[in-house]
Design goal:
A hairpin with a 4-residue loop joins strand 9 (214-218) and strand 10. The protein has one domain (11-223): Rossmann fold (3-Layer(aba) Sandwich), CATH 3.40.50. The protein starts with 10 loop residues before the first helix and ends in a 7-residue tail after the last strand. The chain is globular, with a radius of gyration of 17 Å. Strands 1, 2, 3, 4, 5, 6, 7, 8, 9 and 10 form a 10-stranded mixed β-sheet that branches. The chain has 232 residues and is α/β, with parallel strands linked by helices. The longest helix has 19 residues, at 96-114. It has 7 helices and 10 strands. 38% of the residues are buried.
Length: 232
């Protein structure tokens, strides 16, 4: 599928996806701790703000002041956007019913009121942790994703990888529900002299995409994906 794309704002990654995410689709950033999932999500939000778009950041982990602090530490001037183009919502993931109902019932109206073109849910894996039974988790997460899919915006979710399998989300669900899946992981050479970060676009519906594994680096104010380099 060609045409307009929604850029994440990380040049090499956008290039790997044929220009960015498909408008109106759901993307997922999957990775273990320290791989930069929230950094990627914030870059997605910042790219929208710079482009004159209204955005919504739904946090299940960090308070609003900490999210704003992270953005400021990157050297981004967010002052013109606070309380205007940038809307941050903090939800309590421990009360799943309340949090889910808040998103299902309030997100459509919030999107309409703000005119948001981009929405981040960080991290959606905290929702998954609530359920004891796989069948219940699968059913409720499917309902959740289908509910947010109806919004007229592009959505990016973050999710933890399984502790025993760095190539899969914790419950192996999000990669089936999302349209685009970006996997972040550590790569350790056999001599253990250094640790590298690498990413791949595992899946992208309605679009061709690079299937190569590329190294990336998280710097103070940006993420660099080295599309011309190989991991080793």
């Amino acid at each position: 599928m060609n045409g307009e794309r929604v850029k994440i704002g990380i040049e090499g990654l956008d290039q790997m996806m044929g220009g960015g995410l498909i408008p109106g689709s759901i993307g997922a950033i999957i990775g273990t701790y320290g791989t930069g999932k929230t950094t990627f999500a914030l870059q997605f939000i910042w790219e929208g703000l710079k482009g004159g778009e209204n955005v919504i950041y739904i946090s299940l982990e960090e308070r609003e002041e900490r999210i704003l602090m992270y953005m400021t530490q990157k050297g981004w001037d967010i002052t013109p956007y606070k309380g205007k183009a940038l809307t941050i919502v903090k939800l309590d993931p421990s009360d799943f019913s309340l949090a889910i109902n808040s998103i299902k019932n309030e997100l459509p109206e919030l999107v309409r009121q703000t005119g948001a073109k981009r929405v981040v849910i960080d991290p959606v894996s905290l929702f998954e942790n609530i359920f004891d039974k796989d069948s219940e988790r699968r059913r409720e997460m499917f309902r959740f994703v289908e509910g947010i899919r109806d919004q007229k915006c592009t959505i990016l979710m973050t999710s933890e990888t399984d502790k025993d399998n760095p190539f899969s989300s914790r419950y192996n669900l999000i990669e089936y529900l999302a349209d685009t899946v970006i996997l972040l992981r550590y790569v350790r050479p056999s001599d253990l002299t250094d640790v590298h970060l690498a990413l791949e676009v595992v899946k992208m519906r309605m679009s061709s995409h690079s299937r190569e594994i590329k190294p990336y680096e998280i710097q103070q104010d940006q993420v660099l994906v080295y599309t011309e380099a190989n991991v080793f």
